Description:
This protein has about 110 residues and is mainly β. It has one domain: Jelly Rolls. It contains no helices and nine strands. The chain has strands spanning about 20-25, 30-35, 40-45, 50-60, 60-65, 70-75, 80-85, 90, 95-105. The N and C termini lie far apart (about 45 Å). The mean pLDDT is about 90.
Amino acid sequence: MRARNRCLKEIIDILEIDSKNQEIIKNDFFTIRYLYFDAGKGLTTQHENAMAAVQVIEGRITFVHGKDENACSMQGGTTLEFDARETYSIIAHENSKILITIVPIK
């Protein structure tokens, strides 16, 4: 007997996404964006009225945050929560797949 799939929404396989930048989930409460960076590329300085998290799926990046430009080295399988009201940027040291979750502050 086969198990029935009881998911309420579409299942997204992030390892199969072809786009380099794609909003994969967006609702009234949060947004999850998938980003792919070639080695040496990244995300220029950003900020928004939100709390956020960055999750590295594959690869190795440096995440830079805040006016003091605190830098964190991250690799596949790591996650970091941050205050997106302060500036942040990302540089990939190798081809990298990441997810950024943004939760607006209301």
